[in-house]
Amino acid sequence: MLIGEVARRSGVSARMLRHYDSLGLVRPTGRSDAGYREYSGEDIRRIFHIESLRSLGLSLRDVKRALDDPGFVPSELVDDLIRQARERIASETELLTRLRRINAADPAGWEDVLQIVALLQALGSKSAGKRQRAALSSAEEVPVPVEALVEAVLSEKDPHVAGALRWALARSGESGLALLAEGLGSPVAEVRKRAVQSIAEIPDGEATALLRDALASPDIVVRGYAALALGARGVADAVPALIDMVVAGTNDVDAADALSTLASRPALTDRIATGLVDRLGHDTAEPFARRRLTQALADIPGTTASRALADLSHDEDRAVALTATYLLGMRDER
Predict the structure, then answer these.
(1) Which range of residues forms the domain containing residue 39?
(2) pLDDT digits (tens, 9 = 90+) for 30-85
(3) How far apart are CA 86 and CA 79, in angstroms?
(4) Residues 242, 259: contact at Cβ < 8 Å?
(5) 8, 227, 251, 322: which could form a disulfide with 238 (CB 3.0–4.6 Å)?
(6) Which intervals hold domain HTH merR-type (predicted)?
């Protein structure tokens, strides 16, 4: 079969067949009387084998090795091809993500595109200073797509850069909340922590609803940040979690301050005081937990807290009794 017919049947161009011949990959078995290449059935089978191996990503050199070396073991080469394919996929996925983010920013012209690209590159810089400047400038110049900000804040380890990123996210409104909510469910504890911290800095609205949901999180850190943020917003749902924080000694001073703020609302005063007193009488309350609970009663107004402190001034635990006595004296001076 002449080269033109082989090209038509195999789909491999005559030029490529000549290239295969020059490399020794597949040489036609014979020549016609006129000197044209003639391919046998075995030659054509080899051509199809070559194309099959090329479709896997093998170089022509590796194809020749695979076909000519009887002892050739493909496993190592296939492993290498898998690695290369994964690298290409990761690279293409990264490019696709970058293009989508640029498109989401709705640039008005190429100058905007260039600024967005520069900011995205800066957010991924190894320099904390560059990342921080990118976060701060994102809300003032061409805005960085919120998806990029969320990805950056959930992975940022530097506290100063993280603060700048949370500020930029808060400026962008509620558009990043869905992605941050996914972060709350991450298997990585640090990611969950960064997610709830970011949500806490976004103003009331859907963010408050997410923080309420976070009160039921199995992660004590997430529950704590959510409770503190909700307490600052005057949300009564945070009271049980805040009392738990006082008992556990986890950010207990901040939790006590939040309870004091909430207790300034008459409807919550007795509820908070009663909640603290109930935990004081709990059998499992450890000595240090009882002292923290006593201290937390200090800034809770009303007669319930005062009566509790009066009773505690005679407590068997001397540290608790002295603390309660001191706090009663402070209340009398007000």
Answers:
(1) 3-72
(2) 887 777 888 888 899 999 999 988 888 888 988 888 888 877 778 878 888 889 88
(3) 11
(4) yes
(5) 227
(6) 1-69
